[in-house]
Design a protein that fits this description.
The protein is mainly alpha-helical.
Length: 69
Amino acid sequence: MAENSNTTLQSLSWAEPSTWAVVALSAVFLSLGGLFIALPAAGAAIFGIPAPSGVSVGYLRAIGFRDIA
């Protein structure tokens, strides 16, 4: 396999608005995921859905782990 000599590295600049948009969206999803893991009823309330009780609370935590992944 031949190596491409025209390969250039690109990095995100902190001065670019697109970088801040990516960072902000990442923070939102990490925060929502953490909320669903730590306080499933509060996470459900933010989305306007009733929080299940009993064993079904595990599904809300699964949503949190999915958002963090």
